[in-house]
Amino acid sequence: MQEAIKKSGVLIEALPYIKKFFGKVVVIKYGGSAFHKRDVRSKVLKDIVFMRYAGMKPVLVHGGGPNISERLKAENIDSRFIDGLRVTCEKSMGVVDSVLMEINNELVEEINSFGGNAFGLSGKENNLIQTVQHDNSELGYVGNVGLVDITVLDRLIETNIIPVISPVGKGKDNKLYNVNADDAASNIAIALKAEKFVLMTNVKCVLRDKNDTESLIHSLTFGEAERLIEKGIISGGMLPKIRAGLTALRGGVKKAHIVDACLSHALLLEFFTDEGIGTEIKMSFD
Fold first, then answer.
1. Global pTM?
2. In what order do the strands lie in the sheet with 255-260?
3. Lowest mean pLDDT, pick from 1-10, 163-172, 232-241
4. CATH code for the domain of 241
C-alpha cells in the first residue's frame, strides 16, 4: 500500500509539468558512448515516447562518434581531431553518412517498437541543414550550420510523429558535410522555437567541484554559466555542450538542460519533478 501511495505522489507531482509543457516542442540531442549501453538507450527512447503521449512534441537529434571511429578503424582510415572536431576527408565523409543513417534507422525502429511513431531524416535532405564549410580548411568536409529549413519537421510534428535527425548537412556546392551534433541540435531548436533544448551526456552534469559528484548545480543563469566557463569550472567535454545550450538560449529557446543519460529515466525526472536531476540553464544574465 505504501508503495502505491508513493507512486501516486509521483504522478501528482508530474501533473502541473505535463500541463505546462503540453503541446510544446522539445529538442533532444543524444549520442556518444551511451549509445552502446542498450539498457540506457531503451530508457531514453521510452522517455521520449512517454513525452509524446503526455502531449509534448519531442524531436531527437543523434550523434554517433564512437560508432564512426570504429567503422573508420575497420576500414583503415585514421581518426584525427582538431579542437574536438573530426578531420573529415571525402572518403571518411561517406563513412560518417553511412554510419549515422544506420544509427538513425535503429533509433526509429526502437522508438516504434516502444509504441511511438518516429520518422528518420538526414540533414542533407529537404534543405533541412544547410551548411557552410568550416573556416579551418584542414578539417575538410566539416561544416557549420548556415540555415535550417523546418518545413518537413513542422509537418511531422503536427501529425504526432517524432522526427529523428542525422546531423549531416549539405552545402551550396551540393557536397555533404559532417556537422557537430550539438550544434545541429541547438540550431534546430532555435528554428523550431523550442520550449526546451536537452543535451544528453554520459557523465554527471555541471559540477561545482569536478571531484565531488554531490556538487551538482541544478540551475544556472546564462550569466552564471559564462562566469563558470571563465573560471574553468566548466571545461573539457562539458564545455561544447554548455556552449550549444547558450547558443540555443541566445536564439530564443526558453531553457537548456544538461542531463546524464545513464540515470534511469533521466528525461522524465528532469521534466516532471520539482527538483530535476540535471542542470538547467535559463536566459538571464544576473
1. 0.91
2. 118-122, 162-166, 57-62, 25-30, 196-201, 255-260, 279-282, 219-221
3. 1-10
4. 3.40.1160.10
